[in-house]
Structures are given as C-alpha cells and as structure tokens.
Amino acid sequence: MSALQPEIPGATVLDLFAGSGALGLEALSRGAERVTFVERARGALGALQRNVEALEAGEACRVVRADAVAWIRQLQPGAFDLALADPPYGQGLASLLVEHFAAVPFARWLWVEHGADETLPPLPGSRTRRYGDTGVTSIPAAQGSEP
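The chain above was modelled as a monomer; its predicted structure follows.
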C-alpha cells in the first residue's frame, strides 16, 4: 500500500477478488472515499461483510457478489480511480484482467498481485515488483484513453 499511497486519498477504489476485503479496507483507512468489493465465494463474502461492519465502514463500501472477470466487462473507461486485484494464482486470471484493462481502462491505475513467475501482458508504463513468490504489477491507464 505504501507504493500506491499517493493515489489513495479521495479515490474511488475497486477491489477485485476481494476475499476478506483487506486491500480495499486498507485503502479506506488511508483516505479512499469509496470502495467497491467484488467477490463470488460465499465464505469470503461473509468475512468481508463482517470486516466492513466491524470497521463501521458500510457507508463507504459496496459489496458485489459476482465473478470479477465477468463483472469488469460492464465497466466504462475511468469508472474508478484505482483498481486492486488479488486473483488466485496459476489460473491466468491476472493476465485476463490486464488484457481487458488494455482494451477498457476502467481505472486510472490497476494494481495486480500475481505469482512472481507469471508473466503479464506488457503494457506501457507497467512496473512489476517482486516480493518472494508474489509479484505486484502496477499499470497506469494509457495516455489519452481516460474520459
């Protein structure tokens, strides 16, 4: 989170493959205005809802039960300021997200966690940091593609 801190204050954030909501809730704690969480697993949704309630963050949160890859297909360019994603590793989901983001940049920035050995489609301005078995790739929306 410290690497993307300048993008967070006042941002509308999308947390894809949200799980317990740790990424989006951390963004809220660092000054994000609103977070939309997208998760489809029933158990994870329960944990996410409990976490939102425990932090009394309900007014700033929207929880969507959906498949994240399918859900982003309805988004318009620039729908969010910041999109965070932590898809299951080894299923090609991180690459699918990046490919769709290249076609429809639904946020000013996309940050994707993925296996360190997974190569994502190269996009202009993308940067990957490696932390052990995990890679974190940040990708800005292409210049001129935002509304």
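Residues 7 and 21 are 18 Å apart (CA to CA).
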